[in-house]
Amino acid sequence: MTSNPIRPRATIREVAAAAGVSMGTVSRVAGGSTRISEVTRARVLAAMKDLSYQPNAAARAMRTNISKTVGMLVPDLGCPVFVRMIAGVKEVLAQNGYMLFTFSSESEVSQEITFLQAARQRQLDGLIVSVVDETSAETARELQMMGVPIVVVDREIKLDADRVFVEHTQAMEALMAQLIAMGHERIGFVTAALNRPGRLRVAAYRNALQRAGITVDPDLMRTDGAGRGAAYGTSETYDLLTNGAAPTALIAAGSDFFFGALKAVRALDLSIPDQLSFVGADDTELAEIAGPPITAIERDMREVGRMAAKLLLDRFAGNALPPRTIIQSSQLVLRKSIGKVQPTRRAPAIKKHVEQTTPAE
Amino acid sequence: MTSNPIRPRATIREVAAAAGVSMGTVSRVAGGSTRISEVTRARVLAAMKDLSYQPNAAARAMRTNISKTVGMLVPDLGCPVFVRMIAGVKEVLAQNGYMLFTFSSESEVSQEITFLQAARQRQLDGLIVSVVDETSAETARELQMMGVPIVVVDREIKLDADRVFVEHTQAMEALMAQLIAMGHERIGFVTAALNRPGRLRVAAYRNALQRAGITVDPDLMRTDGAGRGAAYGTSETYDLLTNGAAPTALIAAGSDFFFGALKAVRALDLSIPDQLSFVGADDTELAEIAGPPITAIERDMREVGRMAAKLLLDRFAGNALPPRTIIQSSQLVLRKSIGKVQPTRRAPAIKKHVEQTTPAE
DNA sequence: CTGTTAGCGCGTTCAG
DNA sequence: CTGAACGCGCTAACAG
């Protein structure tokens, strides 16, 4: 420990002594209770400031079983979608005097379990979770034992909890309609279908093709990216574009696949949209700034965060109604990266090889 | 609260009863003490599992004054630099049984103060901080009262604490040398000079120009971006490139200015590097993927995070030596976005106006 | 309005 | 090796 001239933190007892009142009185002032005479309150506040008193959260939590802290579990802090959601959650919680304890599981179930156990030890008052793998029984079991209100974000888990879902189907259908109208029939799709967002998008992809009378080519679907990050986007995109009949359009859904796929397209030196129509998802900044700007599916995750936090606060306030589900829309944002299929379109020649790409870190 | 059939959390007392031993025995098993007979240990562990017992962190913290939790303060979770640092910190702390409590101040001193007070209440065992404004007396005062080991990352604050610094000067000088060698004399610079990284970069920028016998044009320096985010990058870049004699090269240091500046360049439809040499910093992904790939100053922030965490753990272990400072290098990564000044170079014509841009959120 | 007191759950004595 | 008892700092309940 660095040498520190500070004496140990002041306790409520010391404040009481300094102010010449009892501990109970100090406690009431700290708790913002009414029924305190203005003069004593002022004296107590002065003493607190004097000793730079901060109430001991552990003692308070032990006594009240309330920690004024909410836990938030996300799979990846590198994903802008979650960063924005965190901002929304924090905004609402801060207004209500709660702290947010954010944890990134780095897409590992084991880390997720560790966090949930730590959360239980620390008696977090509630949880907002976006789990890595909604099919994980281990995670589900842990969640069931939490014993505090939980809000699940865009995952389908059997659990007595409120939910905030995003509407993925409509935006995906709009996208497919757009691409099909432009003449695309071979549409590559790189994503992770493990959880709700991916599952719905894959379903919408298939439905749209079938409705248009286009045979679904399984080889164009690379939907096994769960936990594999940007590298999956790069390798699958490279493979799609260089082996056999290449797609004329490519959808990379999920910010890391978006990035990874774009990397492969750059390495192959394909021109967007002339040689390939390209669509991303979940990374507005990248979509705006890549040259050319890229059509993408986007959603207001900050608002999702706000809604999740509000659902939780509502439970804290004693609401005991059955679980609710809120649905937030998503949008297809058209930019310059998609275009009509060229009549004479052929598979792009292989220009050069992609260096073996590993995830960003 | 959602109806929950779970009975309240098991206490150490219940575990003791279930295992037919005393509380003290359970505590010793939980604490991993030796000197426990194998049979009783097994019985206790079985009971703990049975009741899915998790020790009450509040009670433990109250008793021991150790929370096994480290706090981390960053200005912005949207900045990849901090996200990577967090990953590094978490990696090392997790290996040592510590949890990480990350807080983003959203570049607001007031939020920073709130966090530091909350940290004191929760008796976090140590802190890793990257403050918004190293000149804030309020923040400094709060930090001095923490009473726990602190590691400061790339900020100059008068404080009895360990430090991890990044070497900014060399990379910046290398960059300037490169640009000057390419014939650039009018080099625009958009950044925030409030804290250590910006200050050092600005100093290196001036020095390099002076050493090359080039007059420093203050109008080319837009170094007042602190707290203004990407919008500052966009508006200043637009202004630089459209008013008066435009620079032939532009450096946007800081991930948000990088993004914002690139946005303005795109809006003006300038071709990189033909019409403008462009250099970024701190956002490797964007630099790699923008068309064309962009020369940038980069640093291994994950390693910075690891080092910060190790310094802290060292203090926890009782190291009482005077404060140490560790320095991490940074690199200039050359990509295709810079080139020689065209002999016939003129200020680019104004092509169109930039829409009024607000920060990403 | 204010003072007093009894635990919250745990880790750490100190006796056995 | 095990059990019993104390108190960490605080809040709530009750007395005055």
Automatic annotation (TrEMBL), chains A, B:
Coiled-coil zones: none
- Which GO MF terms are attached to this record? DNA binding
Query: What high-level taxonomic lineage is stated for the organism?
Result: Bacteria, Pseudomonadati, Pseudomonadota, Alphaproteobacteria, Hyphomicrobiales
- Give me the segments passing through the membrane: none
- This protein is called LacI family DNA-binding transcriptional regulator
Q: Which UniProt keywords apply?
A: DNA-binding, Transcription, Transcription regulation
SMART domains annotated for this entry?
HTH_LACI
User: Which superkingdom heads the taxonomic lineage of this protein's source?
Assistant: Bacteria
User: What residues does the HTH lacI-type domain cover?
Assistant: 10-64
Q: What InterPro entries has UniProt attached to this entry?
A: HTH_LacI, LacI/GalR-like_sensor, Lambda_DNA-bd_dom_sf, Peripla_BP_I
Database matches in CDD domains: HTH_LacI (cd01392)
Checking PROSITE patterns in the record gives:
HTH_LACI_2
